[in-house]
Amino acid sequence: MRTYLVTGGAGFIGSNYIHYMFKKYDNDIRIINVDKLTYAGNLENLKDIENRDNYTFVRADICDKEAIMKIFEENDIDRVVHFAAESHVDRSIKNPEVFVQTNVLGTAVMLNCAKAAWELPDGTFKEGKKFLHVSTDEVYGSLPDDDSAFFYETTPYDPHSPYSASKASSDFLVKAYMDTYKFPANITNCSNNYGPYQFPEKLIPLIINNALNGKKLPVYGDGKNVRDWLFVEDHAKAIDMVQEQGRLFETYNVGGHNEKQNIEIINIILDTLQEMLPEGDPRKEHINKDLITYVEDRKGHDRRYAIAPDKIKAEIGWYPETMFKEGIKKTIAWFFEHEDWMKNVTSGDYQKYYEDMYKNR
Ligand code: NAD
Ligand code: DAU
């Protein structure tokens, strides 16, 4: 039985990944989820699996060497899947330091502990051990509006925000461990995810939540920045396929082939909400384009991201299965069914964050 150490498993993608893995492997794997439970970590995301015998939650900071080393000493870890990070670009613009702390130093701790646990006296590594570093397409910078340009694994790194700079630094650390020690790892660079359990500071859940509550829909700049949206379960699948079928030491880009301008996304959400809300639901009356409000642009706002997932498709056979039309319906249906989840995460600290972030917009 393989034992996984998943970092950041109480966050958006991490919790979807854990659900995906138990659905796929059931009792054939064991997962230890280590998460600090920052504002973005939520154990409610894992309620339905928390009592499994093959699942353990450890509350710890990935920057805490002793706590992480203890997990490796007490368990024979076969796979590390490293999600834990500060993940929101706007927060990184306001407060970059915690991004360096968690994303760079935390990754260094994870690499050091895995290396210490897995390295043999001759400098090689125990058979079959693998580390997967979950990263982002934002490390490649920004593409021009011209829709013939794409990010490839060979595209030079050119990060712009403190978030993407910290993720680029963490990628380089992983690359350094692979190059220097032949440390058994992979990196995946993925485009924008959406789906269940996404924290409503990110565009899609923020727009769904605001529209349902009749609040204005803030569009940064001209609304024509482009992101390449991928349903989160497709990302979870890609991570598992790369770890089991990918070539060690390789980077794989993961993307949805689904480029859309932000304003298009917002219009699709408005139309889909109208379509899915039952006749007579009072929210139908206020959900319309009048809610759209153009606000001050994000500082250093990257114009366009677009992944060419050619390598992962050719080598591993992964491709995005969920079309946007279907994925956004599934996402909205999930938010309809989980109103309490949204209420819980939007109370308290997040409310303060929202008021602060949008006070001049
Ligand atoms: P998220 O913010 O929803 O979750 C991050 C999780 O990490 C939370 O559970 C949080 O509590 C935990 N965490 C933060 N700091 C920690 C620390 N110091 N120690 C332990 N745990 C800590 O993020 P997400 O959107 O799920 O992203 C997960 C990973 O995927 C990140 O590495 C991110 O860079 C990458 N990624 C995200 C996207 C996206 O669209 N969301 C796309 C590509 C890559
Ligand atoms: O590309 C992958 C990245 O996608 C991940 O690495 C990040 O962790 C993830 O947060 C995401 O980054 P973005 O900055 O692209 O996502 P966000 O949802 O914050 O914004 C998407 C686009 O929508 C972006 O162009 C900014 C715009 N936006 C965002 C918000 C929150 C708005 O116009 N209004 C908003 O209120």
3D architecture notes:
With 361 residues, this protein is α/β, with parallel strands linked by helices. The protein has a domain of 244 residues: NAD(P)-binding Rossmann-like Domain (Rossmann fold), CATH 3.40.50. The chain is 42% helix and 16% strand. It has 13 helices and 13 strands. Helix 6 crosses helix 8. The longest helix has 22 residues. It is globular and about 70 Å long. It binds nicotinamide-adenine-dinucleotide and 2'deoxy-thymidine-5'-diphospho-alpha-D-glucose (DAU). The site of nicotinamide-adenine-dinucleotide has 30 residues, from helix 1, helix 4 and strand 5.
How are the SSEs ordered, and which strands pair?
Elements: E1 2-7, H1 12-25, E2 29-35, E3 55-59, H2 65-74, E4 79-82, H3 89-94, H4 97-118, E5 130-136, H5 162-181, E6 185-190, E7 193-194, H6 203-212, E8 217-220, E9 226-228, E10 230-231, H7 232-245, E11 251-254, E12 259-261, H8 262-276, H9 283-286, E13 292-295, H10 310-316, H11 324-337, H12 339-346, H13 349-357
Parallel strand pairs: 1-2, 1-4, 2-3, 4-5, 5-6, 6-11, 7-10, 8-13
Antiparallel strand pairs: 9-12
Helix pairs in contact: 1-7, 2-4, 4-5, 6-8, 8-11
Bound molecules: nicotinamide-adenine-dinucleotide and 2'deoxy-thymidine-5'-diphospho-alpha-D-glucose.
2'deoxy-thymidine-5'-diphospho-alpha-D-glucose is lined by residues 87-89, 136-138, 191-192, 202-203, 206, 218-220, 225, 227, 262, 298, 305.
